[in-house]
UniProtKB/TrEMBL annotation, chains A, B:
Lineage summary: Eukaryota, Viridiplantae, Streptophyta, Embryophyta, Tracheophyta
Chief subcellular location: membrane
Protein localization: Membrane
Protein name: Probable sulfate transporter 3.4 isoform X2
TM region(s), chain numbering: 179-201, 213-231, 266-288, 319-341, 395-416, 422-440, 452-480
Record keywords: Membrane, Sulfate transport, Symport, Transmembrane, Transmembrane helix, Transport
Source organism superkingdom: Eukaryota
SUPFAM superfamilies: SpoIIaa-like
Organism whose genome encodes this protein: Gossypium hirsutum
Domain STAS residues, every copy: 508-628
């Protein structure tokens, strides 16, 4: 209160009019003694304090050091280790019941992860075995570092597709398989580095700029590209084999997966469908192999664990830029998916997932995986949903998944010899068709046309231009949307709702009525350089229109302009200059300008630029009207 | 009112507590019958109407067709012509008195424009005579097309400097003078085309993104570059001539110009100084030419009017991109200066300058000028100020200026033969030093640190990187500032100011107090994809902190969270999803979520996404608190 400019406090008579509205008798005492409240400055802070406060809100909105407060050094160390390795936190009270649930869910997601891993590797133009390798090391790493209990980690369709598209534009995976593999591992390394850096620098806000609208469009566009690619292969094969046997398998796969998204109780159908299809089709091919030729099959897969791939990382040469670019794009996309999935299931079970910590976990996981022949992995939406529905309790389900993949890698590889590639294409198409969320797009159209525009831009950008450019355009549209809202903000004329102190938009509230001699305006946006010129012109136009209306209706002349600043959440120097100039221009027309309820930061800036005059600031519109009308009445 | 979801209207008892604050006795009737007001939807509009409304606010905020409403066709034609050629508007009632004022001011600015024209042409690495040509045709064009009465048109320092810097980076004006000249004219043509297109497409909002902060930094950086360049030449010359004679001239020039900015009454000193310096120094050189050798002089200037330069325009070849880029950068800078100057003096004399019309006028002027051997021109701030102070009344002062330049071009060219280049350097330095507005920079620092940052970025960017990149960085910083405000918005805890219905920040208003069992929060920003995750976490953190505080103080348990949406000026689909999710999460903790006073567009979107439940919307915080507390009391 010490810095308050000058506290205006006096009492004026204000008569309520006691009208009857909507059949309810409103009996406000006809003469209420009314206090005029002063507008306070926010508590004084030094520039350093303000900077600290601002930076902590930007980078540490979740106050991560909160738990370390008032603890002993020893306890702090334990808490720090638990922060880095969340397994230490829940590991101590892990019991057999939890383990039983985790084994069931782990085996369930493994039955989904193995065929999907092989298929997604194919989507990224990588050998099928890389998909299995990527379903072994990353889940193990995540179970140590990650804070989500339900995330099922492994290759995902979007990141696989983007990596496949971006790399194969420059390097052919058929002509230069080793170079292509090197680039894939290098891109994975950079994806991890980028993700971990974002987390370490607490720049989690970057992924907030990929809005849901953008992702809906992006995924639909990507799904169509992938489906067309796979369909080409699929139709080529169909030509050789007997149609009748393939269609039922395909339809059943489609049917089951689609169903299970709606009815979580049937999740095991969707979970079992891919593995069942793989087993059935492999058996089928094995049985008919002597009769039908030309069916493309996976062929020989090498038994054994992930070989190290540190020697495959590629830190100089002409394709380094490509690897970095691919890494950043796949990194940000897989991060967005991983964090969104983690947060979704955390909110269902009411626990917190720390975004920046998750970024570091996923980033470190990808960096480590790139050295063990894995490509980009993250938390998959479909597998995490299955994991959750199968009753997963902790990250141990990821360890069980890794164990199952380990057994597969060591002993079961020959079984995949006759698996037809066509079934992998079917699995991919099934997975990506589910990404086309036309209902979400329709909802966007219904609720927010500009969001729909961002969605459409993202869709066509990805479909017809390229993945990074399409994403870039969509993010650009989203940002322009924010800027447009600031550049051309809404201004309203307010009126009084009879017998209350409420002032609301005349256009919206039919019961609101103008206060004679006053024009009450509200600005619905911060006042910035980008809109100060517009706002000045717009406000003057309101004044002019009001004066013309008054002239036409022969009402009492306009004397005072009140601007309700409640929604003006920030102001900059251009904005303050604009308000000063507006005040001067109105004074030339013998009009008084009064501001109502500026928020803390706006008040502070106006105070510092010495704009504040006496009697031009009020806390509520009602008080401003009452006080100014009283000052016009001849003193008794 | 037809679309209101369900109008909640019932009466509840609400007891005021009648405390005494600040020594003023507040006597609110202890039992006031209170009406609960419903929240209305805005009037229904079709998508097309909304789009029309939105586009008209974006592109036609000044409602330019307003004057054509309810007019006959003949009158509309006259008004249309007057709109295109404002001279038709004031030309009919032009009289001798106005003409007298215009002649005086026209001659005054001519005495400033001729030496400045020659100097600025040198700044752009162009022959001095181009500066004179550019002070002849553009003022004539502007007097026909322009709507400002005080703008003095001609070459300006910023545009000259930028053109000189950008072109000479690629093409040497010494080695390839003709190519350089061609590029300058071509850049001027594209500058004009760009400006006219912006005006025609009503994209005036583009120049709003060059904030004052950016320009302060930019001009200071540019001024330093120019001064260093010119000083190099200046010191080279000083070596040959006698120091003692130069210094007084320089000091007097500096002194006078600086003084006149502060005291408009002495404007003629500043106006006369450059011409006086030129005359005196020319005389001096003429007198000492036999004694001292090596003084660089202007030399022979060709008599005669502007030659046509249509054959010099350059529409293909390797430098076309350079010319276009230079044209766009100089075009946008000169436009910003011209419009800002025009608006400043228009507001002093209380008339309107139509931004988009001005862009078209300046653009057409530059396109036409590029065909008559002129380079980029616009309204100069210093000369317009002199023009205004000398009593200019209409654009006729520009015609007088052009006439004076015409006489100079036809008859007085030989007089400039002995004018030393050093005096031109002095004029340039004097002009640009005035652009370093350290006071404005200090004010930026004092009022808004982020504006100061944009200013500093622009300053160092221009000084150490390059003109377009420096400007780009500064605009980027300004945009990031807007985005940052949206990404990490302010959230407040509100409390009741006793004996009122006012709810204000607890942190700012010490008299405000918490309402038991309620947590009242306010969000000071639109809710977008870019901040929905942050806001959800932040709001939950407020709830958690409140619950801990209540536990520590043994207060009554928290039952209801009220969010004051007054300052939430927009919402998108991610924002709506966030609010829905928040509601669900709070319900799990047995907390009720209530929204207060959503603005029109937010209300509409929530309605369309079927978010609205009954009893979760109120018009004011006071009514929400009263109604919800009443519902908790046992019914009698």
């Amino acid at each position: 209160m010490g810095v308050t400019s000058d506290r205006v406090e006096y009492v004026c008579r204000y008569g309520g009019n006691g009208t009857t509205t909507s059949g309810v008798n409103v009996s406000i005492a006809a003469e209420v003694t009314m206090e005029i409240h002063s507008v306070c400055l926010p508590p004084k802070e030094s520039t350093f304090q303000k900077l600290k406060h601002r930076l902590s809100e930007i980078f540490f909105p979740d106050d991560p050091l909160y738990r370390f407060k008032d603890q002993t050094w020893c306890k702090k160390l334990v808490l720090g280790l638990q922060f880095l390795f969340p397994i230490l936190q829940w590991g101590s009270h892990y019991d057999l019941n939890l383990f039983k649930s985790d084994v069931v869910s782990g085996l369930t997601i493994a039955s989904l992860a193995i065929p999907q891993g092989i298929s997604y590797a194919q989507l990224a133009n990588l050998p099928p075995i890389i998909g299995l390798y990527s379903s072994f090391v990353p889940p193990l790493m995540y179970s140590l570092l990650g804070s989500s209990r339900h995330l099922a980690v492994g290759p995902v369709s979007i990141a696989s597709l983007v990596m496949g598209t971006m790399l194969s534009e420059k390097v052919s995976p058929v002509q230069h398989p080793t170079l292509y593999l090197k680039l894939a591992f290098t891109a994975t390394f950079f994806a991890g580095l980028f993700q971990a850096s974002l987390g370490f620098l607490r720049l989690g806000l970057v992924i907030d700029f990929l809005s849901k609208a953008t992702l809906v469009g992006f995924m639909a566009g990507a799904a169509i590209i992938v489906s067309l690619q796979q369909l080409k292969g699929l139709l080529g094969i169909v030509h050789f084999t007997t149609k009748m046997q393939l269609i039922p398998v395909l339809t059943s796969v489609f049917h089951h997966t689609k169903e299970s998204m709606k009815k979580p109780k049937l999740f095991w159908i969707s979970a079992a469908a891919p593995l069942t299809s793989v087993i059935l089709s492999t058996l089928l091919v094995f049985l008919i192999k002597s009769k039908v030729h030309g069916i493309s099959i996976i062929g020989h897969l090498q038994k054994g664990l992930n070989p190290t791939s540190t020697n495959m990382l590629y830190f100089n040469g002409q394709y380094l830029a490509l690897a970095i670019k691919t890494g950043i794009v796949t990194g940000i996309l897989s991060l967005t998916e991983g964090i969104a999935v983690g947060r979704t299931f955390a909110s269902l079970k009411n626990y917190q997932v720390d975004g920046n910590k998750e970024m570091m976990a996923i980033g470190l996981m990808n960096m480590a995986s790139s050295c063990t022949s894995c490509y980009v992995t993250t938390g998959s939406f479909s597998r995490s949903a299955v994991n959750y529905n199968a009753g997963a309790q902790t990250a141990v389900s990821n360890i069980v998944l890794a164990g199952t993949v380990l057994v597969t890698l060591l002993f079961l590889m020959p079984l995949f010899y006759y698996t037809p590639n066509v079934i992998l294409a079917a699995i991919i198409i099934t997975a990506v068709i589910g990404l086309i969320d036309y209902k979400a797009a329709y909802k966007l159209w219904k609720v927010d046309k500009l969001d729909f525009l961002a969605c459409i831009c993202s869709f066509f950008g990805v479909l017809f231009i390229s993945v990074p450019l399409g994403l870039g355009i969509a993010v650009g549209v989203s940002v322009v949307k924010i800027l447009l809202h600031v550049t051309r903000p809404n201004t309203l004329v307010l009126g009084n709702i009879p017998a209350t102190q409420i002032y609301q938009s005349l256009n919206r509230y039919k019961e609101a009525s103008r206060v004679p001699s006053f024009l009450i305006l509200a600005i619905e946006s911060p006042i910035y350089f980008a809109n100060s010129t517009y706002l000045q012109e717009r406000l003057l136009r309101w004044v002019q229109e009001e004066e013309e209306r008054i002239k036409a209706n022969h009402e009492s002349t306009l004397k005072c302009i009140i601007i309700d600043m409640t929604s003006v959440t920030a102001i900059d120097t251009s904005g303050i200059d604009m308000v000063c100039e507006l005040k001067k221009m109105l004074e030339k027309r013998s009009l008084v300008l009064v501001l109502v309820n500026p928020v803390g930061s706006v008040m502070e800036k106006m105070h510092r630029s010495n704009f504040l005059g006496t009697n031009s600031l009020f806390l509520t519109v009602g008080e401003a009207v009452a006080d100014i009308s009283a000052s016009w009445k001849p003193q008794p």
